[in-house]
Design a protein that fits this description.
Elements (H helix, E strand, L loop, with lengths): L2 H6 L4 H12 L5 E6 L4 H13 L4 E5 L10 H4 L7 E5 L2 H10 L3 E5 L6 E2 L9 E5 L8 H6 L2 E4 L11 H19 L8 H15 L3 H8 L3
Parallel strand pairs: 1-2, 1-6, 2-3, 4-6, 4-7, 5-7
Length: about 220
């Protein structure tokens, strides 16, 4: 019996079922890139959104301002359940994703952008969200395969980055269910490893558990 299975015995059935359901809806073929945000709290808000929509891996390109730091009040501990990869430059991040076969979509307001509803999510997709003031960088735009906009019906032309991420991911999950048949797509091995990791992370009062598991 593994340590993860032993600790899972301390979980309430409802909690364990919730973790199992979350893992079944997890994916690594849809990801988010957060490029050089000025406000680290916006990063925390986007992480919370990503976790809510089953996106397991998130990429954070550090900006010139204060680097990202976790804020449990805003993220609601979402980063605990995610794989957050930090990058020094946009080029390194996007080149890595392109090499992994990801199609890159950037939020950007210009004449060449298409509505969010027209994007396909049949393959591996990375959504790129830019700086709060400057938007997505020219370097990122040059590497992305498409630019998209979220249609606005009011007088404002933009949304807060965490809201834009939420709208985009909601659409992506919907389209993946149609185009791929389902959203969650971890392999059996990936799902097992992630489930065991979540069981361990979900168990509280670790010192009590350690004493209970200690021989003799």
């Amino acid at each position: 019996m593994t340590r993860a299975v032993e600790e899972a015995e301390f979980l309430l059935p409802e909690r364990k079922a919730r973790i199992d359901r979350a893992v079944a809806n997890r994916t690594r073929t849809l990801t988010v890139v957060i490029e050089a945000l000025c406000d680290p709290q916006n990063v925390n808000a986007v992480l919370r959104t990503c976790e809510a929509f089953g996106v397991q891996e998130v990429h954070v390109v550090e900006g010139l301002m204060k680097v990202y730091d976790r804020n449990k009040k805003i993220s609601q501990n979402a980063d605990k359940w995610l794989d957050v990869r930090r990058w020094a430059t946009t080029r390194e991040c996007l080149d890595h994703l392109a090499d992994q076969g990801f199609t890159l979509y950037a939020t950007h307001l210009d004449d060449g952008a298409v509505p969010l509803a027209q994007l396909s999510f049949a393959g591996k997709v990375a959504l790129v969200f830019g700086n709060e003031h400057r938007g997505v960088s020219e370097e990122a735009l040059a590497r992305c395969h498409a630019r998209y906009v979220i249609p606005m019906l009011g007088l404002v032309q933009s949304l807060n980055v965490s809201v834009a991420a939420a709208v985009s991911l909601a659409r992506a999950v919907e389209r993946r269910a149609v185009e791929r048949g389902r959203h969650g797509d971890l392999s059996e091995g990936e799902a097992t490893a992630l489930r065991e990791r979540f069981y361990v992370q979900a168990v509280k009062q670790r010192s009590r558990i350690a004493r209970a598991l200690r021989p003799g």
